[in-house]
Amino acid sequence: MIEFKGMHYPKSVILHAVFFYLRYAVSYRDLEEIMAERGVKVDHATLNRWVVKFAPLIAARAQARKRPTATSWRMDETYIRVKGKWTYLYRAVDRDGQTLDFLLSNRRDLSAARRFFKRAIGTNGVPDRIVIDKSGANLAGLQAVNVILKFTGNGRTITVRQVKYLNNILEQDHRFIKRITRPMMGFKAFHSAAATLAGIETAHMIRKGQIAANGATAFQTFAELAA
C-alpha cells in the first residue's frame, strides 16, 4: 500500500488531482482552477509535489501488474524539454502497441541505449526481436546486450531489425505523451520530469487496457494501484 499518512488532504482528492494531471493536457494552474471549482482549494505548487511524489510509486505498481506483452518490440526515443534543454525519452512498445518500458535520459548515446534495453528486458523478459531506427547508438546498445545474453543465458539472442516504417506504431504512441506534456511548457528539473513522465505513461497504459480493470473506470484502476 502506498502511504498517504500525514497528508493534509484526503487520499481520494490527491489521487483525483494526480490522475487528472497525468491523463489530460492541463497545466498545474489549470488544475488548480479546476480543483477550486470543485470546492478544493490547493495551490499549483502542492499539486506538483503530489505528482512528483506519487506518480512514480503508482507507475512501479503498474509495471508489476500490467498484462503480458508480445515478444516483438518497437523501440525509439522522443524529445522532452527539461530546464530549457532537450532530453531523450526512450520508449518501447510491442507489436500491438502495448507499452513495455520507458526511460528519460540526458544523453542519446550507447550508455543510455544499453541501460534502457537492460531495464526493459528486466521488466518484460527477453524478446524475440526488436525493431529500431537507423540510430547507431541503439544498434550498439542492442549488440552489447546480445553479447551478455550469449554468454550468460542459454545462448539465445535478440534479432535486430532496422526498418523505420515498422516503427510507425511507436511514432503514433509518442503523440499521446507529447500531447499531455505540451501544456507543461517544459520541466524545471530532471527528477520531476522523470516522475511525471512515469505517471503519464501509467495513465496511457490504463487507457490502452494494459492493467486488469474488471469493469472499473480508468480512475478507479489508477486508484486501485495506490491501494
Automatic annotation (TrEMBL):
Involved in the transposition of the insertion sequence. Pfam families: DDE_Tnp_IS240 (PF13610). GO terms for biological process: DNA integration; DNA recombination; transposition. The keyword Thylakoid does not apply. GO terms for molecular function: DNA binding. The keyword Disulfide bond does not apply. Residues 64-226 form the Integrase catalytic domain. This is IS6 family transposase. PROSITE patterns: INTEGRASE. Keywords: DNA recombination, DNA-binding, Transposition. It comes from the Bacteria. Coiled coil: none annotated.
